[in-house]
Every structure is written in C-alpha cells, then in structure tokens.
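Board notes (copied after class):
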Amino acid sequence: MPAIRAQGIEFYWSSSTAASTAAGSLVGQVTGFNGPDGQAADIDVTNVGSSAKEFLVGLADEGNISLDMNCDPVDAGQILLRDDKGTTNLRKWVLKLTDTANTLLTADGFCKSFAISGAVDDKITANTVIRISGPVTWATAI
C-alpha cells in the first residue's frame, strides 16, 4: 500500500451536529494534525490466585485530535473553533485524508483549547485541541 500524502488534507468543524463536509466550516491554514490519540481502558481482574497481573479491555477512549495552523483571525473555521473553546458545544468534526478513496474520519468533540504563539522573525501560529466524545468513524467519501 502506498503512503498517503498529508499535503491536501481537509479538516472541517461543524457549526451544528451534522456530519458532512458541506455542513461544516473548512478550517484554513492547517499545517499539521495529531490524533485521534486515544486508547482503551485497562480493567484489572487480578486476584490472589493469579500468577501475574490479568486484565480485560475496557471501553475505548478516542482521546483528542489537535491541529497546528498558521493563525488567521478571519478564517471561518478558526473563528468557530476559537469561539467554541471552553464551551459545552458538542460539534461534529471531519478529517478528509488524501488517499484515492478520500477516507473520512468523523466524530463528535468539544474544543478544549485554542492558543496562539509567536516569536521574533517567525509567524503567528495557532493550535487547537479537540476532545473526542464517542467513537471515531472511518469511512470512504461519497
């Protein structure tokens, strides 16, 4: 299987609970992403008769997805994320990959943070962290 280019991915943050890219705002100036980064919980079932620790797999926790961006104060997607920071607004997000099938990762989430940073002789950047709520769905774009 060939590698998938990161160049050209699209990230959408919905202003509602709709799951399509058309219903969401494309977040502009994305330079990178990380996640989903979750893992399943461990359930310790070790007892006094065990010869080593024993576990069951618990519920999956999809974790977070984060975006690195060039800060663009007038980008509609960045504005939505910034305005949703710290609110109780559960939104849909969609990450569209660049493979031939146009794989879509879709889930609900809350914007936990939206931070900007800058330095001498550098651009102003932004980073946002979205806490995923529920499962992440992998599908092929239609």
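Comment from the instructor: The first strand starts at residue 10 and ends at 14. Residues 76-84 form the longest helix (9 residues).
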